[in-house]
Amino acid sequence: MDRSPAKRRQTVQGYLCNVSPLKDSKKPYFEASFQHGGECSNVVVFRPEEHMHFKDAEKTRGQVKLCNVVISPVKTKGTSKVYYTHKSSMSCVRDLGRAFQNSLPAEAHDIKLSELLQLDLKPMRANINVKIILEESKGNNIVRDGSLPKTVYTVADTTGYISLTVWCIKNITVGEWYKFTNVSVTQFNGKTTLSTTKQTNVLNIPSQSTAVDVEVSIESMKSDIIGVKLKIQFICPGKHELKDLILSSPSVYCVPCKTHYKTTAIIMKISGRLDLKPETGDNINARVEDEVIRSVVAVKPDTSQNDIIQAFMALPTMKMTICNKVIVKMEESTSQNTSSPGKESQTSPAVMDAENVSIDFSPSDIGLYSSQSKKRKSTD
User: Fold this and answer.
1) Fewest CB within a 10 Å sphere: which of 196, 275, 279, 282?
2) Homologous superfamily of 9-99 in CATH?
3) pLDDT per residue over 217-261, tens digit each?
4) Which residues pair with 15 in a beta bridge?
């Protein structure tokens, strides 16, 4: 329902200034000054997801067209008020150039994390200045555009901290400050989260003072694996997920690519969840991604899902590093490394020595019939 007077809708052209921060945590909105038709009106915008579009138009000083807005005269001031509702839209007309009147200077505003965390948000865009505190997880995810590299970070500014999912952007260093523009702000399971978009730009910036203390849930424990739930996905060179792949076939057809590919060119991605029984405390269920799985289990061309599950079940007690319920590292517990004299290790042939494996956490770009490169110490 539109929260505006019942007036006739109109289309107006002009220039935006003084775009305010978001207001009202329960029903967020923002305001701006709008130069049009020889006057300056106050615009009230009830679509918080367009806040960054208005900020960009203010920054570029471009002429914009506001369509389907409600204009209400303000009798006491001889001006008007423009209501931008959920039926309204904005588009850029042309570059403003020298026509801009600098009598209403734009006010720079960076959205603080504490402000985002307090708002009852609908999906929107934001600009943030944050310090990279921790790399939570890294891998590839299947999305609408195919299989894309994804890294989840804990980030913080001087007011709060939050999780940020970064897609396809490399060269981000833990401990450095960055300005992220046009990140998506959403809520998932009642928790505010951030994610980069196709329009996101990242700029390394000087330190913005001291970031808040971050309470990140990182656990290191020795655990037995008592349950395994896995999912295997096959991805074509065009980064599309393939269904009903027959491994014995020499080729496979990808419908989105409209191309036949050699089966050997297909990528196998493994993910899942493990039920863990720690030495002390309650059982834990944690997510595990492809890179960590391949660090402890050898995946061969003919390895089936059941083979991988049985290989996990055959693992000895493992030392787990868990961040926010995601396993970021697995290695064999040192207490399990000593075997009885004269006896060979009873480890399953599909299991690799985790302490002697060099793990590459970059996205896999190799074919199905070549598992990720791993180095093992030679035995005398």
Assistant:
1) 282
2) Nucleic acid-binding proteins (2.40.50.140)
3) 778 889 999 999 998 888 888 888 888 888 788 999 998 889 999
4) 35
